[in-house]
Structure formats: structure tokens, C-alpha cells
Write a structure and sequence with these properties.
9 helices; 16% strand; two-stranded antiparallel ribbon; alpha+beta
């Protein structure tokens, strides 16, 4: 029952976030096309990856994004003790049993970013892990935007690049090309990045950390997903065995009937 209530709550919240913020699985980039999404590594079964993702979430996401469907105490399920949670993951004076909220008010958030940042406990369900993984890796510096940043997956996004110190500062290069669907129309096509300043992480290291962060967000969206999958496998095996037994019983029962 607890799992069912959590799933229903998360699903309803995902619908609300989607309706409010116009979420989509993919978004048009500067050229007006659909930017291809990279496959996000699935590390939900790795406690080490989830713990690193939780650290990144708290340090770079939790200042603006809440996760009201998750309590700090839920982090015990990824191998953390209450003391580790208190010492490393609670930065706002909350208690271990509290939900992961933010101190920033919706009014301030709307004034600073143009809209209230979405709740990240359901973002992986609303957008998909591939979308988030690609989105967090396709920021580039753009002085024409209010925040000074832009994104290939979500053009003119109101959120600045919170992880820029890790990835470094880079700009994007575009070319004007004819639209293959309409030769009379020109479109801007992304051709590559230019690294302006290096980050504290190398590109592969940054990608690995983003994979951990996205896996943690996927776990937050459904903490019971591994258990659900294990139960699903058991149920399918049971049904397969039961079907075989029923087939043999049926054959034995009707063998003398002509």
C-alpha cells in the first residue's frame, strides 16, 4: 500500500509539473530541430553511484529545486546512515525525517528565473533520464540571454548552468544551412563547442558524475523500482511455471477423451 501511494503521488505530481511547465521528452534547439538525446547510463542499482549523485544533488541542485516526494530518511535505502545524512547531505538545518524542500519562496524563484524551478523528485519521470542527461551536458555560454547561458536541448532556458565550475565555460558554434525540408529557408545548425576555460573535471569525469546525478534523480522518482522489477521477474517466472503445469494437467485430463 505504501508503494502504491508513493507511485500515485509521484505520477500525479509529474502530470502537474508537465502541465505547468510544458515539459517534453525532447526540445527544439537553436536551429528549430530536435536535438538528439544521448543514452543515460543506468546506475540505479549502484549505491556508490547513487551516493555520489545525492552529493551532487545537494550541492548543486537543492538550493533551488525541491524534492517533496522524498525524505532525507529515504537515503538509508542507498546505504547511508542517519549520521552520514546529517553530516553530508543536510545543509539547511532540516531533520532526517523531513522532506527535501528549499528555503527559496516561489515568488522569489519566479522573479529570478521567470518560473518556479520544477520539483526534481518527479523530473526523471516527466522528462526521462536521457533528456536530463543530455540537457545537463549541453550548456554553453550565451551573452544574449539574461543568465548568460543557453542550452541545446532546452533553448533559452531560464536556469543558469549550475555545474559550470565542474564542466568549465564553453561556447557553441552554429552554421547557417538550408533547411532540407524547405530549401528556401535557412536554419542554424549546431556544429561544435569551443572550450573557453577548463572545468575542475575532465570531460569524461564530468559525464560520469552527471550519469550518477541522473541515476539519483531516477531513484528519487521511484525508490522502489528495483524491488518492483525483482517482483516482476518472480511473477513472470511463476506464471510461466503455472502455465506449463496447467497445460500438462489439461493434457492428462483429456487424454482418454476421444
Amino acid at each position: 500500500m505504501k508503494y502504491i501511494l508513493h507511485t500515485v503521488k509521484a505520477s500525479l505530481r509529474a502530470i502537474a509539473v508537465t502541465a505547468t511547465l510544458g515539459l517534453a521528452a525532447t526540445a527544439a534547439y537553436a536551429g528549430g530541430g530536435d536535438y538528439p538525446l544521448d543514452k543515460a547510463p543506468d546506475r540505479v542499482s549502484s549505491n556508490a553511484a547513487l551516493q555520489n549523485g545525492a552529493k551532487l544533488y545537494v550541492n548543486y541542485c537543492a538550493a533551488c529545486h525541491s524534492a517533496v516526494s522524498v525524505r532525507y530518511s529515504s537515503l538509508r535505502d542507498i546505504g547511508l546512515t542517519d549520521q552520514q545524512i546529517k553530516d553530508n547531505l543536510i545543509l539547511n538545518g532540516a531533520k532526517v525525517g523531513d522532506v527535501m524542500t528549499v528555503s527559496m519562496t516561489p515568488k522569489d524563484a519566479k522573479a529570478w528565473f521567470g518560473k518556479v524551478p520544477p520539483d526534481l523528485s518527479v523530473e526523471a519521470r516527466a522528462r526521462g533520464t536521457d533528456w536530463i542527461y543530455t540537457y545537463l551536458r549541453t550548456y554553453y555560454q550565451d551573452d544574449s540571454t539574461p543568465t548568460g547561458w543557453n542550452n541545446l536541448v532546452y533553448p533559452n532556458v531560464g536556469m543558469p548552468h549550475a555545474l559550470w565550475q565542474l564542466q568549465g565555460i564553453r561556447t557553441a558554434t552554429f552554421e547557417e544551412r538550408k533547411d532540407p525540408k524547405d530549401p528556401s529557408r535557412m536554419e542554424k545548425v549546431f556544429v561544435g563547442y569551443e572550450q573557453v576555460t577548463p572545468g575542475t573535471m575532465k570531460p569524461q569525469e564530468y559525464d560520469d558524475n552527471i550519469a550518477d546525478l541522473v541515476s539519483f534523480m531516477s531513484w528519487m522518482a521511484e525508490p522502489m523500482q528495483l524491488q518492483r522489477k525483482r517482483i516482476g521477474v518472480v511473477v513472470l517466472l511463476f506464471l510461466a511455471i503455472f502455465t506449463f503445469v496447467a497445460w500438462r494437467l489439461n493434457k492428462a485430463y483429456w487424454k482418454d477423451v476421444k
